[in-house]
Amino acid sequence: MTQAGGTEKAEPRVQDSRHNGQPLAADLAEQVFREQVRLAFELLPVAIVANVALTLAVFAVLAQVVPMGELSAWVAAMLALIAVRAAALFDFRRTAPEKRDYRRYVLWYFLPYALTGLGWSVLATFIVPADNEIYAVLAMCAIYGLSAGGVAFLGHMRDLYGAYLLVTMLPAAAKWLALWWQFGGGFRLVMGLTTLVFVGLLYSAAHQLSRLVAGAVHARLEKEALARRLQELVATVERANQAKSDFIARMSRQVHAPTAAIVGQALQLLGDEPSAPRQAVLRELHDDAQSLLAMLGDVLDYSSLEAGQLQIERVEFDLRELLARAGAAGETLAAMRGLAFTCNIAAEVPARVLGDPRRLGQILVNLLSNAARYTDAGSVSLDVRQMGVEGARHKLVFAVRDTGIGIPAPRLGEIFQAFGHGEDGAQRKGGSGLGLAICRRLAGLMQGALAVESEPRRGSVFTLMLALTSADSAD
Fold first, then answer.
1. Tens digit of pLDDT for each residue in 400-420?
2. Is CB count within 10 Å lower at the N or C end of the chain?
3. How far apart are CA 196 and CA 174, in angstroms?
4. CA-to-CA distance for 2 and 100, rounded, in angstroms?
5. Which architecture characterizes domain 315-474 according to CATH?
6. H-helix or E-strand containing 402?
7. Which residues contact 87 (CB under 8 A, 6 or more apart)?
8. pTM (two decimals)
């Protein structure tokens, strides 16, 4: 609800019946009608002020030539009609939009408006002396001005404005034409015809304005309906995505425990030194279960990332010790593939830092695992250096290089997407297809960045850029 004197905002749209996500034609027509009524009441204060000012001005001018009794009665009637219009405005503004009876307000608006126009017509037709052409012309000018101003106030409702023109200007035109017919005189004919032409021009202007306003309101309502529908679709997709993530995470957790048990039982059986054929089967069972366990871990991490539930820790840890463990894992992976492995840690790399050791180690081991998996001959390396220092923050670069199959340039953007692979045979290399997507998301959560440079048949370099705070400086 808007206080008197304020400007009312467009009211909320009413949620009515819909068809295929679009408002029905009747619904739109009703909403366009309500917007037209609202606009008419929004402009009403200006019309009221203009009518009061013009009424008092006419009273002052005509007081010398019109009997005071007639003129006073006319002024009283006009001010009473203006008061009714002001009451309608007050009631409209204090009523909540959803409780308004718009058709009742149209009548409340138009009837006193039309009667006001009729009052001006009575002034020009019957009250002002016909033989005093100067004052008669002044009265007609007042009618012309009010009618022209009415295009702005009510022109967007063409039919109502047309009715207003009929009661306001046609009697005056008929008067001038009747006087011309009875007494002659070119001036009277000109006044009558000019009034008729002016009526036609004003109605044409109102017709154009009505079409423009209705079209603009209709387009805005269509846009709002589409926006609401889009929001509903987005919310539906988000709910479906959340349900999918919850389901995958729940199922992964349920499968994770028995898979881990299979890994442990396979190791226990291998420790009993079975026969060679059985040992081969158990080794394959262990490796496959271990791969499945890693995939389940990726699925759980990705689901947590999608749901925004994965939290990055900030604890003190020994970076060099973490790099040593990652290097040992990389060396083992490389050795299993018959590859050379090197780990180079620059002397300026700090030892004690603050960060998330688990997630940093996860990224490095994943990158080293991929490097070994996609390299058939040659080497894999892990290089760590310091790029710069800002206060207690050390800008570090972790680079994992390989001499593997490489990645074609058009596919470099795909490898960090979920289930993205760098080359057509990647599916045969194993893996969940989530590792690099998880690594990039984790790097982002740690305020870092993960990038890649690659050339087919020459190898790849994955670079993690991360700023870590020195624990000694933090203390």
1. 999 988 888 878 777 877 665
2. C
3. 9
4. 13
5. 2-Layer Sandwich (3.30)
6. strand 393-402
7. none
8. 0.49
